[in-house]
């Protein structure tokens, strides 16, 4: 009888050793480590399930390195590979095939596939203080949604601008911008985009363009980025009595970066277009801004816009500042 219980105890002990041997380990920046099974890694968090507790969610910025004991499908710079991950001595890095790999380039879920969609976005309301002699005020309401797989990235932005002065409506416009990127590699992509603007004040004026061209991501994965895009654009200007069309080459820079463990975000969107008519030298649209996270979802924003057109007869520039409150999702 004692031998039977001894055998049972030995079996249970061996099972425990075996389970521990295949466990994953996460090393934190404060020196702690957690052993268990890694369930997910996304742009914000790493999720691990220890044997002694429920799932633990750890902010990505608190992870120094980690390692896995089994080959699993990981997304590495948008390519899915079956790999074993080893811990690195460098902060925010791991070793994959003996190569130092930034953790920011990795995504993992138990159901990872090429067709997995990742969604993100924000809704924001802002008040503009425009830099002109009348010091007019504007109300802005805008939304921004991104849906992305390993090969495709959709982005839809919309904005309503409403301006009053002495109880008189001075501006009432609707803008919508859609872009579709086909991600050819870690850096190269092909962009198709459409833009629409409607002025509902007095004259019924609509303007829109369609654009197509290559883009290159200099650096950044997931939330951080620096993209350069060169497109050929076709513009339509639709008034009540006629429609005017023109073509233009355009260069666009999209920049976004997070600081202080994601609490502060800086961003910029710059575009300059060169129409194929001699009377207009260029049309530019620039946005600079920052967001400060009050909570994980709620943020304060400051935005600086410059819209500029230079032609043979005049040089016009519209500058505005905005303070806003938004929600991430």
UniProtKB/TrEMBL annotation:
InterPro entries: DUF481. Residues 1-23 form the signal peptide. Gene3D superfamilies: 2.30.30.100. Keywords: Signal. This is DUF481 domain-containing protein. It comes from Shewanella mangrovisoli.
